[in-house]
User: Fold this.
Amino acid sequence: MNKQDINKTKISTGLIRALLFFLVGSSFLQAETFKERLLSDQRTFYGKQNLLLLTATLGAGAVLSHTRADQEVRYWYQSDMRSGSSDEFAKMAKPFGDGKVMLPVYLGAFALKYMPTNKILQSVSLWGEYSLRMILVGAPPV
Assistant:
């Protein structure tokens, strides 16, 4: 990555952070309800029951990862499931998992909430809000 690409990345990351800060901290965007829902999501996600289930799942995965089963699943996928078309699909789908691409999309979708009332725009805005909340709740452990 050259110096120009690094600077572009820093600028885009800074803009995303500023937008998220504005989104969470601004009363203009009705942030209180957004913050309340975000806090409720965090309480649910990091609650005792979910943490116990997460611990059990990670524990089972840790045990299985040190057995022959892990190698067999990997071999099965590489030999029977993976193909040129699955690789092409993965290349096509990859940008949708990139935060630098999708965070601005989610923020833009959420901002549609403030456009004139339209059921389609409101649905897209709700999707944007759910997506942002999902990232803000799930990102800390990652």
